[in-house]
Amino acid sequence: MPKPDFTGTWKFNPDKSSLQIPAPESTTFVIEHRDPRFHLERTHVFGGNSDTFSIDLMTNAEAVVCAHAGFEIHASLQWEGETLMFDSKLEREGEPATNIVRYSLSDDGQSFIAVEQFCGKEYSYENTWVFDKQ
Question: Which H/E stretch holds residue 111?
Answer without folding.
Answer: strand 111-120
